[in-house]
Amino acid sequence: MPAPRWLIWLERLARWSLAGIFLAAAVPKILDPAGFALDITHYAMVPDVLVNPMAIALPWIEAVGALALLTGFAAEGGLLLINLLILAFLAGLGQAWVRGLDIDCGCFGHSGAKGHVGLAFLRDIGFLALGLLASWLRRRRFKTPAF
Amino acid sequence: MRRAFLQMIALVLLGAAVGFAYNAASPKGIPVKGGKQAVLEQQGTRMLTTEEVKFYRDQPGTLILDARSAEEYELGHVAGAASLPLDRFDAAYPQLEKELVKAKMIIIYCSGGSCGTSEEVAKKLTEKGLKSLAIDTDGIPGWIKAKLPIKSGQER
Fold this sequence. Notes:
heterodimer, A: mainly alpha, 76% helix, elongated, B: alpha/beta, 5-stranded parallel beta sheet, two-stranded antiparallel ribbon, 7 helices, 7 strands, 15% strand
């Protein structure tokens, strides 16, 4: 029996919203890798040798994950990837918040302005909830484990 | 689960491959190796430790800039440093312009390792056409730790 229309559209809406968020986050970082590399160093949790490769690859990984969610191609893998990325971002923001670092989050590109990492942490909790909801809806839609 | 995991690995590899290819082709690409220092050097800015700043401070033509807020500057700054706060850059720059243009070396500091304020000020100065820029990576905590002269108030 096919999934009801409301479920199909709700699953698409959740997936596309997440895709939009991650594309909006990836594009500014792709356009300013130097700014993103400096933002990464301010978190003081990544060894210096990994900073530049991370600044080069991570925004594209976000973008590819977002495109998977947008198109529905490899969407299960895309959802797993995006949810794991959000968890990693939460770890970075959480430690910065606990340590009281007054830094530019860099989440949606390099702004040069200091923002409250605590607010970014809480916002990412919301993104994680959306990611988990999208995964759950997809599992219900196709009656298969999303991950 | 296995299928999702394999898809995720493929997406990560694809994203990383595209990222490195784009970086190699893009005029805004950054060096893969060398970390923060390589990125700053690409922007024409050197990284200095407190010890190195101490050396350059005594050389003629060196100007030290405090990129923190005016309030933080007043509480305590490197003796001899001028205040050029990032949050008041456009207002403060004209007052220092002549000195900045004349300077043979401009060293900028903020609150230490995790503060990006000095990097932002360096970027703005580069955009103004200034060269011979350096960042004191240890910032004011390094200066205090080394027991070097600190001054409070608005005067340098």
